[in-house]
Design goal:
Arc Repressor Mutant, subunit A, 3-stranded antiparallel β-sheet, single chain, 76% helix, 3 strands, 2 domains, mainly alpha, 4% strand, globular, Four Helix Bundle (Hemerythrin (Met), subunit A)
């Protein structure tokens, strides 16, 4: 039978996962305050497991603890965001390269099905549903790389930049372009072409050129909405 300490820790873990999911899904925007009392009431717990959950989120970089403000969803500087996207592009491109070398036939079929799901969602015009389908598509590539450490590292960084990746999808026509980029990645993986899979994925993730300008405009607009 679990003791009280284990139960309390399990509850803190559950709260942490729920808040992290809301941050990465864009339900909690960068800069949003996370009030301990309100969260304790919401989850029907004391403030202790909430405080522990927020501390864990702060360690993961998803939350900032600010003097006189308490916990807020982390807001990254533009320079930091670009640095993280640069690393993200390289991590994901390595995952795709290894997928082209190592993915089983069953994994390839699963990836193709997720790609097709993204296409179906675009036709529905539901951007939130596309974001979820897109997340599952990318996570299938992490899982298919055959390297658990790389998978964990890539997923952890994705969680930190997810609110900003979501912002990109607001740009007119971005969903269609995203799907076209997915198509190039899938074709390379199914063809067991690691070089093309790597480069196609890097282009898909990297924020540069006109995409950079569009991204910065959307990001500034998003921050004004939060403020």
């Amino acid at each position: 039978m679990a003791d009280r300490g284990e139960v309390k820790q399990n509850r803190a873990d559950q709260i942490r996962e729920l808040i992290a999911e809301e941050i990465t899904a864009g339900k909690l925007s960068p800069g949003a305050r996370l009030e301990e009392v309100a969260l304790a009431e919401r989850f029907n717990v004391s403030r202790t497991p909430v405080r522990e959950a927020l501390a864990q989120l702060a360690s993961a970089g998803l939350v900032e603890m600010r003097p006189r403000q308490g916990a807020v969803v982390a807001t990254l500087s533009l320079e930091r965001i670009m640095e993280m996207f640069e690393v993200m592009a390289n991590l994901e491109s390595l995952c795709a390269e290894l997928c082209a070398r190592r993915m089983t036939a069953a994994d390839q079929a699963g990836l193709l099905a997720l790609h097709q799901r993204c296409a179906e969602v675009i036709e529905s015009g539901d951007s939130d549903a596309y974001y979820e389908a897109n997340r599952r598509f990318h996570e299938a590539i992490y899982a298919g790389c055959g390297n658990s450490y790389l998978e964990e590292t890539t997923r952890s960084l994705r969680n930190r930049v997810s609110p900003y990746r979501r912002i990109q999808l607001r740009h007119p026509g971005r969903l269609r372009r995203s799907l076209e980029e997915h198509d190039a990645i899938v074709k390379a993986i199914l063809a067991s072409d690691p070089d093309t899979a790597r480069e196609a994925t890097k282009r898909h993730i990297a924020v540069q050129g006109d995409t950079f300008t569009d991204f910065m405009a959307l990001l500034r607009s998003s921050r004004r909405e939060v403020a």
